[in-house]
Amino acid sequence: MNFRKVALPLVCALVGAAIGYMFSRHSDFSGPARLAHGDTNDRFAKVALLRKQEGHVQQAELLQEIALDRMRDDPTRIPEVWQVLQSNIAVASQGAFAEVIRLGTFDRSVRASLLHCSSLAEFEMGWRVHTAIETLLHKKRSELQSDVAAELQTLRSQCDESPFGKSISSFVAAMVSTAPDQTSLGARLTAALPPPATGLGGDVLRSPLKDLIRSLLAQAASEYASVKEAVSEQRKRDEANEELVPASEAEGGRFQRLLERLAALQDSLETADFDRWIWFTDGDALSTQLEDLRHSISQLGQSAFELQRGRYNLWALTQIHAAEESLDWPQRLGQVDVHLLHPTVSALYSMVYNRRIEAAPDRHKRGYSVRLLLNQAKIRQEQF
């Protein structure tokens, strides 16, 4: 066997491996936070924090996810990641909200990792970390609750001093914001206030949240009562045979304006997402109040719509009566939208139309009258 033929490739391979190792140790190609082969979980976590400080957010998030994934598969890695997270919180606090989010995310990963324990010792080690996280999470959540409670009280004061429309807008802007940084009052409230079923407390927040929702629902009920009274007054005017004059399309009729107020009220209740926030308060009475208000709004809206349709038919009846004798009967009948007529009024419309068209002296006169009728702009129900 030729010794040189065998030894030379082996020596080259060893030299290449040594050069590659030195390059990986000293090259600056990947920056100061370059990961070495076989890095531990704490190394991934530390480099994730370093990359985040350097502004490489996407890299940081991916490295953190790697650390958590490895930890979920191997419970023995829990303490090293937890140690890095503790150090980061102690050195560079990002506020109670950010820390509650990070701790909650890490705790969920720890609990998932505990399902993969191969021994009781591993479980006890991971459970101690979980207990420590819960203790710190409770502390940070308490800090966040105090801040959010003060903001809720301020928001309620602003809403109490504003008309209903403005107060709902303020509530929605604060609580249902879709800001990409998720730092709205609603997002911080969600992080600070655990669901009632967990038994983790949170009364310091539930009380001002209940008061805020109760105040807004009282304003909504007051707006509903105002519309209901206006509908009742308009009904009495119609019963007293008030003169029926359609409003302009731009202005809209009295019933139309009341229907629009009801629609705006209903939209406000849905946009405010009260169901979500009431669930956090564990407030059955508030839920009942909200559902009763929704039902009342729907019922009043249906009643106002029927009264508006009835008012249209009463106006149409005056036009039909006038058309029986007037020379401008095609214009009068042409303004009426027959699709909106009650069957009785519709039958009377047809009777008058037939009588007048048959009374025309010739087919040219009949054709002219029909063209006049068809070319008339229709009066719409919304004008009453």
How would you characterize the overall build of this protein?
Helix content is 74%, strand content 0%. By secondary structure, it is an all-alpha fold. It is elongated, with a radius of gyration of 37 Å. The termini are far apart. The relative contact order is 0.06.
Question: What labels describe this entry?
Answer:
384 residues, mainly alpha
User: Which residue ranges are poorly predicted, with pLDDT under 50 across at least 5 consecutive positions?
Assistant: 10-15, 17-37
How much helix is in the residues?
over 70%
Biggest sheet: strands, sense, closure?
none
Number of helices: 15
Strand percentage: under 5%
The global form is elongated
Extended strand count: 0
Distance between the termini: 110 Å
Mind telling me the C-alpha Rg? Answer: 37 Å
How confident overall, as mean pLDDT?
83
Structural class per helix/strand content? Answer: mainly alpha
Element pattern in H and E: HHHHHHHHHHHHHHH
Map the helices and strands.
Elements: H1 3-26, H2 41-53, H3 57-73, H4 78-91, H5 96-114, H6 120-160, H7 164-175, H8 185-192, H9 203-239, H10 254-271, H11 274-281, H12 284-323, H13 329-334, H14 343-358, H15 363-374
